[in-house]
Amino acid sequence: MRHGTQHADVATAELDSALRGGPFHVALRAAIAARGLPLQRVQHHLSRYGVKVGVTSLSYWQQGARRPQRPESLRAVRALEEILQLPDESLIRLLAETTDQEPAARRPATRSYRSLVEACDVLDRLQAELGWSLDGGLHTLGHHERVRIGTHRELAARESQHIVRAHRDGVDRFVAVHHGDPGCAPQHMTVRALENCRAGRVRADEETGLLVAELLFGTRLRSGDTFLFRYAVEDGTAGVSREYVRGFGFPGGQYTLQVRFAADAVPTRCHRFAQHSAAAPRTGRQTLPLSGLHRSVHLVEPRVRPGLLGIGWDWE
User: Fold this and answer.
1) Cα(312)–Cα(149) distance, rounded to whole angstroms?
2) Region of 18 on the Ramachandran plot (φ > 0 left; ψ -120 to 50 alpha; else beta)
3) Which domain of life is it from (predicted)?
4) Rounded to an integer, what distance in angstroms lies between the CA atom of residue 231 and that of residue 145?
5) Could you give the domains of the chain?
6) Which is more confident, 78 or 150?
């Protein structure tokens, strides 16, 4: 009994220290430990407050891998203060201090390997729900992406134009994938068909920020036929964006990526990078010139190979 009391005293002391000095994720972890609640129970209590937060998100919050940003997430933090019997505004205050004071160099700028692997597993499930597997009978001849960064430095929107060739008869659609920045809300994104297609079914996963959408051609291609289509995803649901990454499962044709920045949100430096896989180190880092007149930067890959390719940028 005495040992249990000592353990509780230590947990309480750690919590008091964390609430005074932060950061947010350490205080949250200490509060959950001090109350002895598993994350499933925390999630259950939150649901009684009318707040929906996944166990994965709670885990990310207390690890510091993600930070609550959206209105629903901030409601959850306020509810956690009551559930964990904390002083009012104690977690919210630490969250604001962490956001304002944490140096940019210490903030997580890229997704972790674990989060990318989880996203791959979720992507397989979402695509399976739409009856889509492997390359869907299409070979990519060209893919041009235009990414727009908004005035709050957020990933505001993305537009894609594809040129594909069918390598089997009967192909009549494509399943597009959009992976939002950490903290995004895919259920609030909008898919718009722009040319030679119309939007079909859409599936999303809030935990990983993944959205997949059917784009229906309105015709059935024969093997060897080519097709061009264009669509856009309106995002703008996450915080500050620091990079855009595109993954390729198969070799293909030319890929171009252009990132355009709002007039009052122009970064100081931009660079391109590549990865053979999510587990591999980044290679091929190369500084990219930023067009002052058009506030844009781009890369061109003549022939795509399996792996990841992207553009990153520094704000200050």
Assistant:
1) 12
2) alpha
3) Bacteria
4) 10
5) 2-102 (no CATH), 113-314 (2.60.40)
6) 150
